[in-house]
């Protein structure tokens, strides 16, 4: 693999869609299933075959849980709709959606049921299908998913931070539900005389004890609320939830509730991550001049923290940083030499072994490649970069933790290689896998039924996203995203109570 031609959907920050600018990083898509199917391209029968082959391999391994069944059925549905040679009739759509709805309802975990439901609603919107497929005389699917969100209990996430999240999961679910319902054009359901879901979700912020999770989770909720045109509730009853989160982030030392990571991370990483997500929220708020100087110079704080995190941590945070600055209209001011910044950040791949661990190193290449893509610098990514990434998964047998979590970096890899037109590398025989394909090898290494791999659902997200991208480049922004304005729209606007 000496040279690799790339087919990329964007060639610089100025070409990013509004959805990508708001949901900018692979974390939201792979971990939360939010914003799947970005960068739509022309239907590719080879890509469709790869997606179906991957699900067949999972079935052969006995991975037949409700979430995987939902993901396979939805992917097949999306590919059938996207295939220009099929053109299904409306009656076919109704028939084909029934088993997908049943698969969502069969998911026992309420958070995963909500996540699946939101992915389905988002897919219907992105395929430009009639919302009456989900809201009609017989079915009110959005109402079902809102009801399931009510049942999500605190501190149920099973990861290295188990017991430290509070209502983080429910808050994340509300963010996804609000966005999906907005995609269907039904946002008015969220604010009624009977129930004010937006206020209820905002009240959950105070029930997330760790500053890291309150900032990261709150940033997406607040961005979605702004997107829906309900930003007045962010300043409800004389409060300002954005300022409250920024103030809470400033109390990190006093509160002493740092998150745990699979690998040791610097203190500056813990601080910069939620700050950068909040900077993107500030760009969505229309009040950037006010918030960027609240209590301190937030851009100076971000710049200082970025300089203090380790080089491998910068590969993760570089994408967050650039997108936030771009959305704020402050990129040239804060990063006057963008090329040098990107070259240094992307160039770190040379020093990173992607097989050393599943998180810090394992997903670094995905961020590096996407940073190169969105800045128009794919010339920095060559065959050796991809070879090292694609061939690194056998090394994740070094520890049980890496082995069980191998689907995490593999999902990131499949997602980003699909975006740059190189996903085929995971579906072709390679020496590093003794002649097997990487996708077949990774799935074959799963425990029986995939029961040990609690992050296997991320592979489902990567496959659904890959499928949804096949809907065609003519399927541009959905109506919800078309008129987003980033930056400072309303200078020092007086907070409104409602």
Description of the molecule:
It is a single chain. This protein has 25 helices and no strands. It has helices at 18-22, 26-32, 45-60, 66-82, 90-106, 110-126, 141-149, 168-183, 197-204, 211-227, 241-250, 252-255, 267-285, 288-291, 298-308, 311-328, 331-334, 338-346, 364-374, 383-390, 400-404, 407-419, 438-444, 457-468, 479-482. The protein starts with 17 loop residues before the first helix and ends in a 16-residue tail after the last helix. Mean pLDDT is 93; it is low at 490-498.
Integer average pLDDT: 93
Helix percentage range: 40-55%
Task: Give the overall shape.
Answer: globular
User: What is the strand tally?
Assistant: 0
State the secondary-structure class.
mainly alpha
Whole-angstrom Rg: 21 Å
Oligomer: single chain
Largest sheet: none
Terminus-to-terminus distance: 60 Å
Strand content: under 5%
Return the string of H and E elements: HHHHHHHHHHHHHHHHHHHHHHHHH
By DSSP (H or I, 4+ residues per run), the number of helices equals 25
Tags for this model:
498 residues, mainly alpha, 25 helices, 54% helix, disordered C terminus
Quick overview:
The protein has 498 residues and is mainly α. The protein has helices at 18-22, 26-32, 45-60, 66-82, 90-106, 110-126, 141-149, 168-183, 197-204, 211-227, 241-250, 252-255, 267-285, 288-291, 298-308, 311-328, 331-334, 338-346, 364-374, 383-390, 400-404, 407-419, 438-444, 457-468, 479-482. The longest helix is centred in the middle third of the chain and has 19 residues, at 267-285.
